[in-house]
Design brief:
By secondary structure, this protein is of the alpha/beta class. The chain has three helices and six strands. The chain has a four-stranded mixed sheet, sandwiched between helices. Strands 3-4 form a two-stranded antiparallel ribbon. The longest helix is centred in the last third of the chain and has 17 residues.
């Protein structure tokens, strides 16, 4: 997922999301965990951003926006098990040129792809 970073000039990988309602001040979801941790390889994603010359870090701090809300909801909907999809949130500084955003997305997507489990081969009987 990709969203804006309103509080920093860095590209940021958001590593967790809190149980909040969509609107500020709204009640959290009942019978859900208080936080959900991203499944994407945050350290590798930050390194990939550094490798292409972008300033980046990983953070546990979310923003009170749709991005954090969606990250939480997607993470809570993932099945239990070892082979869950890599899900994280790349936060891009506001006013970043589209070409840099594209480079950043390609860099982090490459890291995610390296951590994907291979699909089992189809068996023809």
């Amino acid at each position: 997922m990709v969203g804006p970073n309103r509080y920093s000039s860095l590209f940021r990988i958001q590593m967790r999301a809190e149980n909040r309602g969509l609107e500020p001040g709204s009640a959290p979801l009942h019978q859900s965990p208080s936080i959900a941790r991203a499944t994407a390889p945050a350290a590798g994603m930050v390194q990939a951003l550094h490798d292409i010359g972008l300033s980046a870090d990983a953070t546990s701090d979310g923003e009170e926006d749709v991005g954090s809300y969606l990250l939480y909801r997607v993470l809570c909907a993932l099945p239990e098990g070892r082979d869950v999809p890599s899900v994280g949130l790349l936060r891009v500084p506001e006013d970043t040129e589209a070409a840099l955003v594209e480079q950043a997305i390609k860099a982090v997507a490459g890291v995610i792809a390296q951590h994907m489990s291979p699909l089992p081969r189809a068996r023809h009987i």
